[in-house]
Write a structure and sequence with these properties.
Elements: H1 3-21, H2 39-61, H3 73-83, H4 89-106, E1 115-116, E2 123-124, H5 126-152
Antiparallel strand pairs: 1-2
Helix pairs in contact: 1-5, 2-3, 2-4, 2-5
Length: 153
């Protein structure tokens, strides 16, 4: 098993753990998890970034140029959530899993040397990018768990 496989397994596991949060019966998705977003918005944020990752991996695997999101991190985050406004949790989960399949189908392609995160910003190898994504989802998973528990206590 190579490094990409190990990182992919860890990233997939973290993504599915995050999805399970949204399958809890009677989950109140309106609970605010930070100053900007409720639980539904947090899911949309993860979906937006995952779709961006999937698009770029797919483009690079076809020998095309990546199209990372442009702007400040704040702008990219806001625009990603706004672009998915109105979608229900089941729709967002379907999109997240579709993006995951695209990542898994393309991440081993030899044409992929580095994957841009955003413009301006850093590019990562496939294994590094998978680890960044895993860490990002992990951090938001615990943000959601901790704030939801506190709100419902």
């Amino acid at each position: 098993m190579d490094e990409i496989d190990r990182m992919l397994i860890a990233e997939r596991h973290q993504m599915e753990e995050f999805v399970r949060l949204f399958q809890v019966p009677d989950l109140d998705i309106s609970v605010m998890v930070n100053q900007r977003w409720n639980l539904r918005d947090l899911l949309a944020h993860i979906v937006a970034w995952h779709e961006s990752f999937a698009l770029n991996v797919s483009l690079l695997a076809r020998g095309e140029s990546a199209q990372p999101p442009r702007g400040t991190l704040r702008e990219v985050n806001r625009n990603g959530v706004l672009a998915l406004e109105g979608l229900k949790v089941p729709q967002l989960i379907r999109r997240l899993r579709k993006a995951q399949r695209a990542i898994e189908n393309n991440i081993h392609n030899d044409l992929i040397e580095t994957i841009p995160y955003r413009k301006p910003g850093t590019s990562y190898t496939a294994a590094q990018h998978l680890d960044v994504v895993r860490g990002h989802i992990h951090d938001h998973f615990w943000e959601a768990v901790d704030t939801y528990a506190a709100a419902k206590a």
